[in-house]
Design a protein that fits this description.
Layout (H helix, E strand, L loop, with lengths): L3 H21 L6 H40 L4 E5 L2 E5 L1 H7 L21 H14 L6 E6 L5 E13 L2 E10 L1 H47 L4 H25 L7 E3 L1 H18 L2 E7 L6 E3 L1 H17 L5 E11 L2 E7 L7 H4 L16 H12 L3 E7 L3 E9 L14
Parallel strand pairs: 7-9
Antiparallel strand pairs: 1-2, 1-5, 3-4, 4-5, 6-8, 9-10, 10-12, 11-12
Helix pairs in contact: 1-2, 5-6, 6-10, 7-8, 8-10
């Protein structure tokens, strides 16, 4: 330990006593001399001790920084949510070139706002526990505004002689994207298996009927009704396969500008005779000056046809179906198909659109699934609202060809 503090203060005491002896002719070795010299030595010793530990702390802090800089993982140290130090990996992670770009800034400048509460709660836990806490992930921001997922673990430390929080983590964006991709692949494989099993089941039923009637034809006189049943069952197989092909291999859609009123009127004209036979009246209501849409007209007609057929099948005792079309908001148009049918239980609504999940006795569920897929391809939404014994409302929301202008802030240099 350096003795410069003690030496300097003792010399000051000696010089002061010498000054008094020369000018005041006082004795040199007095009680005051020994007392002040002793005090000077003690104060100097404390000063030297403080400087020694300060120098040791600085050396330790420098070693600490060198260790942190050598780590390949991003590391940063904060106090009161302010950044005190970051290593090179952390600089690279947020797109900074020098530490001055980050030092002194709030950690929340680099956290997506909705994750701020999570980080604050984490910091409270770190201060309370005083030991490393489990990893947590949140969405962070780079200097260029882009975001990434960051997994971090934090520890309470002493840095620069004061308490601080050291955090170490890694960018897990690629890992999470890969996990999501594998999950989607797994879901697709599960869906494929579900659809394959469902199609086999749905086709087996009419095939069994056909086989039975062919055997009857061999052993009995020909009956016209047998032929009709066989043909209807073959049509059913063809319909099931056709629905599946639409989902499995959709044709390339050619989008054109269309008037939604004309499309709906064409579909309602097509289905009107069938609705009248079932004692069902289809009522239409259109807003004036509806904006045009860009769509594949045959696909949308298929959607409207499927939904109107579903509405009719839900009304075995007849009634009215209301088709209401209006501009929902700027850039969006709403088509509602409202029936007075038996309704759908609330717990089943969320599963509608899944293959082979249907409320109909002989349905496959593929028709509604096709509707969802077509509307999704048109950047639209399909929502279902229903009450048991009151009816069902299906709302389709589609973008119009005229979209509202986005507000942009332009800075002038």
């Amino acid at each position: 330990m350096n003795k410069s503090g003690r030496i300097i203060l003792v010399l000051i005491s000696i010089l002061f006593t010498s000054f008094q002896k020369v000018y005041d002719h006082q004795p040199f070795f007095t009680i005051d001399f020994f007392l002040f010299t002793f005090i000077a030595w003690v104060v100097g010793w404390q000063y030297d001790k403080a400087r020694y530990y300060e120098k040791k702390a600085r050396a330790s802090e420098e070693s600490y920084k060198k260790l942190i800089d050598s780590l390949p993982a991003p590391v940063y140290i904060t106090r009161n949510h302010k950044i005190l130090y970051v290593n090179k990996a952390a600089l690279s992670m947020v797109g900074a070139t020098k530490r001055e770009d980050l030092m002194g800034k709030s950690i929340f400048d680099f956290i997506v706002p909705e994750y701020k509460g999570r980080v604050l709660e984490r910091y409270k836990l770190i201060k309370k526990e005083k030991h490393p806490v489990n990893t947590i992930d949140y969405k962070a921001k780079r200097l260029d505004g882009s975001t990434f997922l960051f997994e971090v673990s934090s520890l309470y430390i002493v840095f620069g002689g004061k308490e601080a929080i050291l955090s170490i983590g890694k960018d897990i964006t690629i890992r999470m994207e890969e996990t999501e991709r594998l999950l989607q692949k797994s879901e697709k494989l599960a869906l494929l298996g579900q659809m394959a099993a469902g199609i086999a089941h749905e086709i087996r039923n009419p095939l069994t009927s056909i086989k039975g009637f062919i055997q009857l034809l061999k052993t009995s006189t020909l009956k016209e009704e047998y032929y009709e049943i066989v043909l209807s069952e073959l049509d059913r197989i063809n319909e099931i396969v056709g629905e599946f092909l639409v989902l499995a291999k959709p044709s390339a859609a050619v989008y054109t500008t269309q008037d939604i009123k004309i499309l709906l009127k064409d579909v309602i004209t097509l289905i009107n005779n069938q609705s009248l036979l079932n004692n069902i009246q289809i009522m239409m209501k259109f807003d004036d000056d509806l904006p045009l849409i860009s769509c594949e007209d045959n696909q949308l007609k298929q959607v409207f046809l499927n939904l109107l057929k579903n509405a009719m099948e839900a009304m075995p005792k007849g009634g009215s179906i209301h088709v209401v079309v209006k501009e929902k908001e700027a850039g969006k148009i709403s088509i509602q198909i409202i029936d007075q049918g038996v309704g759908i239980p609330q717990e089943r609504i969320s599963t509608l659109g899944e293959p082979f999940y249907t409320t109909k006795e002989k349905g496959t569920g593929l028709g509604l699934m096709t509707c969802y897929k077509i509307i999704e391809g048109h950047n639209g939404e399909l929502n279902i609202y229903s009450q048991l014994n009151e009816g069902t409302t299906i709302e389709i929301i589609l973008p119009t060809i005229t979209q509202p202008l986005l507000k942009m802030e332009v800075s002038h240099s």
